[in-house]
Amino acid sequence: MTISREEKYRKIEQARPGELEELQEQVKNCPWRQTYHIQPPFGLLNDPNGFAYYRGEYHLFYQWFPLGTYHGMKYWYHTKSKDLVHWQNVGIGIEPGDPYDSHGAYSGSGIVKDDELYLMYTGNTRDEEWVRHPYQNLATMDRSGKITKRSRPVIDSVPAGYTDHFRDPKVWENHGQYYCVLGAQRWNETGCVVLYKSQDLQEWSFEGEVGTCLNHFGYMWECPDYFELEHQGVLLFSPQGLEPEGDHYRNIFQSGYVVGRPLDLRTRKLDHGAFQELDRGFDFYAQQTTEAADGRRILVGWMGLPDANYPTDRNGWANCLTLPRELTLRGGKIIQQPVRELEKLRKEEVKVEAVLQNETACFAGFEGTTYELICEFAAADAERFGIEFRAGEHEKTVLMVDRASKKVILDRTLSGHAIAEEYGSVRRCNLDAENIKFQLFVDTSSVEIFVNEGEEVFTSRIFPGPESTMIRFFAHQGSAACRASLWRI
Ligand code: FRU
Hints:
Number of helices: 2
Bound molecules: beta-D-fructofuranose
Number of strands: 32
Shape: globular
């Protein structure tokens, strides 16, 4: 189906009579609505934006196209929370359609200054010849929650050497100076990150490119983020155009990071180690971090990918955000753990301890569609052990350890409604450990799996039927001791 430009870049007030009501009706009848994840009221959600702690609340916006489940005219939709667990829908945050964001208020970030929340974002525009002109714009939110856009961009051109793929400002402060990184594409169609500097968030000077060792690493880097953690510099970004390599880079686009010595803000050089993927699952992209009130570094990602179709499309909505994760570093690697506040979601608990002997077993109470599950495996001599969840007569999602290859494997071949099959339905990663701990957050149509306290994470949408609720534990060709706790959510 081709959608005309006019249709695609409609604003919400241009909805046809009854169109919004129809979308809302479709959403109401959707079997895959999430219960504790941020999801759009209707329409399409993508990147998290403007994530910041301001006056006692976390503010988290996301890219939103209200009138369909394709990428059209993007708004910022505003949500907020006091605890990172319960989110309140506030409504439209930034509305596009002015001269400097005529074709969308694209991604950006938030920072608190002078008791206001400053939101810096990319204004997407197209001229009569349909040539893209990106602007970097500013809006401020005051204590009453009112958001006001500046009428002029704060960065109004693309420096020589870069194409019109120039977007997604992420701002931070360092010793009273402001800096921002932007995702860019060089004239030779390779991706990179550039750096700007400002005294006041209004006047920005182009400093140049951030020097990395990744000079030919995809054709565009989207959504960069820079921060320091435990005296190390971390650069996150979402490179497009990497070819699959073994277990790596299996999704359409990737998301990952490099870690090294803190960025030298004068030379803009970043000495860093190898690029590492943030997530091993099927649906993760365009993440953004912020600093929590107590100094923790918190990450939220888009549980989706560009150019993918999801079965909820026909129910008038698409995509959700991941749960917030706390980041720490261990041996040059980012460790991601669900924020501890999420324990508030836990309701009744069921527990079990068992030794599995070449069998598949079910235990009382271990079933459901929305829950947190922790299961630990030890003393395993089985060739393969793990769990099947959201399982029924024909459906199952399989998470297991293959001891010979020392891999953790997530298999969604039989998870229900298939998605992005052309990119395969199995994801694997190496994990050399005797004991295995899986922590799963299962919602109606997703799973986030934290392996061994966040050493690896698999984030995926799954679309099983509502009757597929079983959890089965297994050990094949040998035995494994298993201890599990499940909390209903
Ligand atoms: C990443 C992205 C960003 C852009 C936004 C538009 O998913 O393409 O680079 O700002 O989405 O919605």
